[in-house]
Amino acid sequence: MSACPANSLSTLEVDWSRTDVGHPDSWPLTLRVAADLMLNSPLPTLVMWGRRQVMLLNGAYTALSGLPTQPPGGRIPAMQPSAWSWNPAALERAWSGESLAFPGQALQMWRADGVSEQRFDLYYTPLCDGDGVVLGILCTLAPPSAVAAPAADSARALKMLVVEDNLDAQYLVCEMLRAIGHDVDAVADGERALQYLDARAYDVLFTDVSLPGISGVEVARRAVALRPGLRVIFASGYSGTLTQQLDFPADAIQKPYDIEQLQAILERIPRG
Questions:
Q1: Structural fold of domain 150-267
Q2: Burial, 42: exposed, middle or buried (Cβ in 10 Å; 0-12, 13-18, 19+)?
Q3: In this structure, how many other beta carbons lie within 10 angstroms of the beta carbon of residue 151?
Q4: Which of 184, 262, 260 has its CA nearest to residue 252?
Q5: If DSSP states are collapsed to H, E and C, what string results for the chain?
């Protein structure tokens, strides 16, 4: 496993006493991953944790919004930020487990000189525990795309299955793939992956090679036999030689990889 960048901010370096989430030692894995993602994101990002709606936020959101609340946020706010309050129905859909994208959404932002309307591409991601129970919602505000974004262009979106047993790595890659417009499911082992592949037609299988139980290579071999048009991408520690030893076509990227490497492969895949 690769080390975090030297300039990344750890949850243990932040004072959480102004919030109602307690010390990070007591957090579930879902909150630890979401908080790390939020704190280190260059984009304005918020987390709504629990139905009591504890609000966590990063420095980029504070700079954007002009809120007096500083990272990592505070207790239940008297007035919700516009990223939450503009569409209560959207939040309820996220609480029910839907990942949502709203390109070019107008929000009313409070500034020192009054209220101004700004547009963002909004992404809402349910934060679930291992049983699929939604514990919170992650919201990211991205600059509006100058042209139609992949998330708004269904002809460019790919249906992808990610197979990764490291839950932190799985979460991060899925969020990045969804942010660039793809329809993503994720599982942690080969047996579960084969169940998903049997039930749904995917465009891409992106799998780690080393998995508990059935290996990623065997999962891909069975998947290609089941769905010959499936594109396979491996995450591997030895990507240079892996694809030369296979009896089916596949791409591979070497761990640790950048999302740009994965995106470059995905851009070569024809869209339906």
A1: Rossmann fold (3.40.50)
A2: exposed
A3: 22
A4: 262
A5: CCCCCCCCCCHHHCCCCCCCCCCHHHCCHHHHHHHHHHHHCCCCEEEEECCCCEEEECHHHHHHHCCCCCCCEECCCCCCCHHHHCCHHHHHHHHCCCCEEEEEEEEEEEECCEEEEEEEEEEEEEEECCCCCEEEEEEEEECCCCCCCHHHCCCCCCEEEEECCCHHHHHHHHHHHHHCCCEEEEECCHHHHHHHHHHCCCCEEEEECCCCCCCHHHHHHHHHHHCCCCEEEEEECCHHHHHHHCCCCCEEEECCCCHHHHHHHHHCCCCC
Structure tokens, 106: 């107008």
**What are the extents of the domains in the chain?**
11-142, 150-267
Q: What pLDDT, in 10s, does the model give residues 115-153? A: 678 899 999 999 999 889 999 999 999 998 744 344 434
Do the Cβ atoms of 39 and 72 come closer than 8 Å? yes
What is the identity of the amino acid at 131?
Answer: D
By the 8 A CB rule, do 69 and 77 touch?
yes
Contact 205, 197 (CB under 8 A): yes
CA pair distance 19, 94, nearest whole angstrom: 22
Give the predicted TM-score (pTM) of the model: 0.53
What type of residue sits at position 228?
P
pLDDT digits (tens, 9 = 90+) for 10-63: 787 888 888 889 889 999 999 999 999 899 999 999 999 998 889 999 999 988
Tell me the β-bridge partners of 160.
184, 204
Please answer whether residues 217 and 234 qualify as being in contact, where contact means their C-beta atoms are separated by less than 8 angstroms. Answer: yes
Question: Domain spanning 11-142: which superfamily?
Answer: PAS domain (3.30.450.20)
